[in-house]
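Section 3.1: Structural characterization of target chains.
Under the original work plan, the team committed to producing a structural model for every single-chain target entering the pipeline before any wet-lab resources were allocated. The record below documents one such target. The sequence was received from the expression subgroup and is listed exactly as submitted; it comprises 259 residues.
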Amino acid sequence: MTSLYATGANGLRVQQARLDAVANNVANLGTTGFKAARVDMVDMPPQPLEVARAGGAADPVTEIGEGVTIGGISRVFEPGTPRPTGNPLDVAILGPNTFFVVTTPDGQTLYTRDGQFRPDSTGQLVTPAGDRLSPPITLPPGASVTEVTPEGRILATLPGEVNPVEVGRITLARFANPQGLAAAGQNRFAATVASGPPQVGTPGADGFPALQSGALEASTVDLAEQMTTLIEAQRAYTVNARALQTLDEMVGLAIQVRS
């Protein structure tokens, strides 16, 4: 009987996690480069159940499942649709499983798909969170960026010059297992043992995707899919709660009969 309570409770926990994931996804529908999360469910290991056989001994081989648990949280790392902005320092990655490399103010190396870059007070290109592009790119005084080429070359015009010149180059990083990356907040990810070490390369070369200047990557949240998941998780949560309620009523009846 205790295992039946555990089965219902496990179901409630998993469905609550799915509802939480949907809420977070929908909240980030408009977040640049956001990757939708999905709760992966796996069944619990079955437990042996003795079943009496007519005219014979109990059969210890029969097994019954104990419900479901969370197997992990995976993300949709497919590229989102590039949305034009007209700003040459807004950059979208035109391929999956690849990231910009940034360094936080405390020196930590992180990875992001958010390509909103701006020069800070010293001319270094930074993200809205204040993370510096890595390797660092510093614009010369008075430089005006005109384009970021598909190969990552940052072109700018300098004071007194007509033709744009290269003032830096953006590099990208990819991972053998991007699902192993750990979310670090503010649209950033951290490398882990599961993700493997980063492989750094040039956009448009050696299998790395090209860049698109003047555009930002939309999130990979599919609103229709999220609403479908929401309804499904709500129904499953209700059924699990009803199963626990029914079980509690059965236990109550049994107690009344024995008393």
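The first strand starts at residue 37 and ends at 43.
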